[in-house]
Amino acid sequence: MAENNQIIFDVQHLEKAFGDHQVLKDINFSIQSGEIVSLIGSSGSGKSTLLRCLNLLEVPTGGDILYHGQSILAPGFDLNKFRAKVGMVFQQFNLFKNMDVLHNCTVGQVKILGRSQKEAEEIALTNLEKVGMAPYRNARPRHLSGGQQQRVAIARALSMDPELLLFDEPTSALDPEMVGEVLETMAELAREGLTMIIVTHEMAFARDVSSRVAFMNEGVILEMGSADQVINHPQHERTREFLGRYLGK
Ligand SMILES: Nc1ncnc2c1ncn2[C@@H]1O[C@H](COP(=O)(O)OP(=O)(O)OP(=O)(O)O)[C@@H](O)[C@H]1O
């Protein structure tokens, strides 16, 4: 983990268009190590696109993203090294179906980080224990619930020793009774000081766990501040309206 208060990402005038559709407009913010930043907002407001630009799953069409002061868009930027440091947890878990849980958590370590199988297994087991999934180390993903699969996906991401984790609606594909177990796992990581950027519709979670919250509306960050500022005392009518739907305000 990086030292606290170091700027990891500096997003400058970021734009993203799909054809004529301008999805992100002049986005500016930075992320320091140790922060937990939640991106909230209506469906289609650009949250996932923003998150996906941060690890170049989507290529910005304007502006820049600096990672420790270096543009990730610059020619020669070491994308493989960067991707190993910036982990991602997806809505649909994306586990390898033909591998058991342990193998899911070791394959990247061996292939990308060059660790030995033995070392990779030790690290994987530590992380599987952390998310409560070590007893399922030999199971195939299809034999696990959605919540269990997502916890394995988190253990897999952690096993790469990321500097920060990006979460793209990690509980949206889950049955309601499984949401809590994944959110609790994420809250524990937050307590441990992992830097996290989270796209979520779980407003109570965002309020309780985030150091900062960004409310996105039609491709812009309408307001960004502490969870208390944005969720408990929103400045914009649009934010109040949105939160009212979720929190019954
Ligand atoms: N690959 C793509 N090609 C074309 N349009 C896209 C693509 N990805 C996203 N979009 C469009 O960009 C807009 C923003 O989508 P995005 O998924 O970022 O929103 P979101 O705020 O994450 O929404 P949700 O909460 O529903 O996931 C939407 O209008 C979407 O249709």
Automatic annotation (TrEMBL):
Task: Please give the name of this protein.
Answer: ABC transporter, ATP-binding protein
CC terms in the record's Gene Ontology section: plasma membrane
| Stored Gene3D superfamilies | P-loop containing nucleotide triphosphate hydrolases
Protein family: Belongs to the ABC transporter superfamily.
Q: Where is the ABC transporter domain?
A: 9-243
| Sorted UniProt keywords | Amino-acid transport, ATP-binding, Cell membrane, Membrane, Nucleotide-binding, Transport
Compartment list: Cell membrane
Which InterPro entries does the record associate with it?
AAA+_ATPase (IPR003593), ABC_ATPase_HisP-typ (IPR030679), ABC_transporter-like_ATP-bd (IPR003439), ABC_transporter-like_CS (IPR017871), MetN_ABC_transporter-like (IPR050086), P-loop_NTPase (IPR027417)
Q: Give any GO molecular function from the UniProt entry.
A: ATP binding
The protein's superkingdom reads Bacteria
Q: What is its main location?
A: membrane
Does the record's keyword annotation contain rRNA-binding?
no
Bilayer disposition of the protein: Peripheral membrane protein
